[in-house]
Specification:
The chain is an all-alpha fold. The protein has a domain at about 25-60. The protein has four helices and no strands. The chain is elongated, with a radius of gyration of 19 Å.
Length: about 60
């Protein structure tokens, strides 16, 4: 039997939680971490923007 002939059903996702809810639940980035990892901090704040101390640290760099 060909591999595409098998009857397959998509497995349900492990969690039915929307991505936006997960992003909103993330804690604010630590300012010290933001200073040590500015590229990652910018990427995180691009995906989940928020006003926090990490933004001030990044603006001062």
């Amino acid at each position: 039997m060909a591999f595409d002939a098998a009857a397959c059903t998509a497995a349900p996702s492990a969690s039915a939680v929307r991505t936006s809810i997960l992003i909103d639940a993330v804690a604010e980035p630590c300012p010290a971490w933001a200073a040590e990892n500015p590229d990652r901090a910018l990427a995180l704040l691009f995906v989940a923007p928020r006003a926090c101390a990490a933004v001030d640290v990044l603006a001062a760099l």
